[in-house]
Design a protein that fits this description.
The protein is mostly helical and 96 residues long. The chain is 72% helix and 0% strand.
Length: 96
């Protein structure tokens, strides 16, 4: 917030994040996509939600001196959420 007023771009970021969540959920649930495409959609959704979440914090609060770097880093870290599945399986295979 800037002086108690929600900046318009924060509202836009929140609406975009909602749209990303809905579209990502539909892509993951789609039977028309190959398994690797669903995995890519899942990772991309995590990354976009992480990036937009931190963008809302950075740009909404004027919190950071390097917001673009932090937004990109947040997105990259959010994508890494699924790495534990590959570590647990000891495989890079996408098959069940």
């Amino acid at each position: 917030m800037i002086d108690g007023i929600v900046a318009p771009f924060v509202v836009v970021f929140e609406l975009l994040m909602l749209l990303i969540c809905v579209l990502g959920d539909r892509a993951i649930a789609s039977s028309d996509l190959a398994q690797w495409q669903r995995a890519l959609a899942d990772a991309s959704t995590h990354g976009a939600v992480g990036a937009f979440s931190w963008a809302i914090v950075c740009f909404g609060q004027l919190y950071s001196d390097r917001p673009l770097f932090e937004v990109a880093l947040s997105g990259a870290l959010a994508v890494s959420v699924d790495v534990d599945h590959f570590i647990a399986a000891w495989s890079l295979s996408l098959t069940v």
